[in-house]
Amino acid sequence: MNMQTGSVIAPPAPRSIDEMRIPIVMMRDILLKTIFRKNVDIVTEIAQAICLPVPVTQELVDMAREQRLVEATGTLHANSGGVMGYQLTDAGKARALDALSQSEYYGAMPVPLSVYREQVKRQSIRNIQITRDQLTGAMGHLVLPPTLLGQLGPAVSSGRSILMYGPPGNGKSSISNGIRDALGDKIYVPRAIEYAGQVITVYDPIVHSAAEDQVDDPNSLRRSSNRFDTRYVRCERPTVITGGELSLDMLDLVYNPTARTYQAPLQLKSTGGVFIVDDLGRQAEPPQALVNRWIVPLEESKDILALQSGEKFEVPFDTLVIFSTNFHPNEIFDKAALRRIFFKIKIDGPSQQDFLKIFSLVARKKKMPLNEKALMHLLKVKYPTIDNVYANYQPIFLIDQMIAICEFEGIPYQMTPELIDRAWANMFVREEAIVH
Hints:
Elements: E1 4-5, E2 8-9, H1 24-38, H2 43-50, H3 54-66, E3 70-77, E4 83-88, H4 90-102, E5 111-112, H5 113-122, H6 132-139, H7 146-158, E6 162-165, H8 172-183, E7 186-190, E8 192-195, E9 198-201, E10 232-236, E11 239-242, E12 254-256, E13 261-263, H9 266-269, E14 274-277, H10 287-300, E15 302-306, E16 312-316, E17 320-325, H11 329-332, H12 335-340, E18 343-346, H13 352-365, H14 372-382, H15 394-409, H16 417-427
Parallel strand pairs: 5-8, 6-17, 6-18, 9-13, 11-14, 14-17
Antiparallel strand pairs: 1-2, 3-4, 7-10, 8-9, 12-13, 15-16
């Protein structure tokens, strides 16, 4: 039975050990390590700790009992409605310690990579169809030329890659964030996945914002937790934003030698969501090298990762990649790379008319009265000195500067040619030789 939340089909909970598709010894060891580390002793608590339904957990506990690794304590928990308690036998403790020396991982059972692939298809970013209204709603606070939304909409709905380029300070980053906000539905992110007996942790509270959990009363008859596989966390579609700090090794699996587990790289954490490479051209690695790393994933919807042993394997790549740069694309990419980036959208500075629109919106929001003389001074005296090149960040910058001066001088908020001059001086540093 598929449970649907919004438009995404939830991963169904496993109904038996056989449905799990994880090596049985691995499941047993995670069970023992979790009982040992978390000191849980009744099945409902153990089930919660390893994120499996109670019947499947009971099956695992019974198997460990047959192997004399777990025993019933013989005491019934009075406060848990006379439920049987369990503990590790000496052999069970020895096995748990041995297993911990091989891998510190315990807690949520991992989801096998093959099972995770199926869920990625159910919640693919390519399944999203965005309307002009949704995009306008998410970008409402930005003043954008109407043609821009017409270009962004199809780009986002295709779930392919987008390159935004143009002069700095015109909201390429704000537009990227607006795209993320427009997505709006929820997906399921695995706490960890399993491949070839190795555990790779995926869920990351920094990248993934968990949707409100339904807390269950374990004693109620109608349990709602079986609605989906709790080895996953229901989240907003993830967004990873990287800038000048992005390097190629951040796109590789991270191995933790102490815990002997892997952590998913950024692009795997952003599956089903958006990966923003901001300020392309400011990284230590040349832009061409960074884009080359994305070529196979972008074309084939799969990425290739490597384990410590050198073994390579495929993971799904289902991410809307947004590159944003202040350089002209021809300066930083060859033709082949440009051909592979599906949509190229120029984000230009505003026209004088749009600049004034933004300026008055910001002024109204910040309770700064407009003054015609000051505005004429700005447009006729100041802007010609920079060839009348307007940028979206300038209205906020200038108005904030004038507010700061007024507050310092203890005068009501106001706009004068003299205040414009003082604010302008902070926006651009005068070219001059400094004697050392």
